[in-house]
Structure formats: C-alpha cells, structure tokens
C-alpha cells in the first residue's frame, strides 16, 4: 500500500508533519501484528501534490492512500482508511 503525504506549504502549516509522524508510528505498530502485516505500508513524502492549486477552497492537508485522495486529512480519518485497506 502506497501512502503519499503532501508537504507543500499549506499542508505543512495545517498539520502534515503530525500526520506523517502518526502514519510512521502506525507502520511500526502494524508491522508487529500478523493481522495487518500482509500488506507493506510504503510512505512517500511529496513536496507538493498540487491539489490545493486546483481547488478554490481549503483542502489541506492532503494524503493519498493508494489512489484515494483524502482532503482535509486528520489523523483519525487517515488511520482508519489505512487499517481498513491493510485488513483486506
């Protein structure tokens, strides 16, 4: 599973670093759990995904999980989506 975290200026100001820390912690926790260990979690930090430039509203921070774009990403939303994908 590929998780991209946008680190553009808007996303960084609105909590992307915190999200990245949470995702990295989740990766460590799930790597020890047989239930979730079957799908490797690949985390990629991206300078800017460019979604905020296309949108007129505030959508930051942005996280992409596989091909699903998560706007206004929060730790809870991102963790739930990752765990749901990993348990499939």
Automatic annotation (TrEMBL):
Pfam families recorded for this chain? 2Fe-2S_thioredx (PF01257)
**InterPro entries the UniProt entry points to:** NADP_DH_HndA-like (IPR028431), Thioredoxin-like_sf (IPR036249)
* Gene3D superfamilies for the chain: Glutaredoxin
The identity of this protein, by name, is: Thioredoxin-like [2Fe-2S] ferredoxin
Record organism:
Tepidimicrobium xylanilyticum
């Amino acid at each position: 599973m590929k998780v991209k975290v946008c680190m553009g200026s808007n996303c960084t100001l609105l909590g992307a670093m915190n999200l990245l820390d949470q995702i990295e912690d989740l990766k460590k926790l799930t790597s020890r759990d047989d239930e979730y260990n079957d799908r490797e979690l690949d985390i990629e930090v991206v300078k800017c995904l460019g979604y905020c430039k296309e949108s007129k509203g505030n959508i930051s921070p942005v996280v992409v999980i596989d091909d699903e774009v998560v706007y206004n990403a929060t730790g809870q939303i991102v963790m739930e989506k990752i765990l749901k994908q990993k348990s499939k």
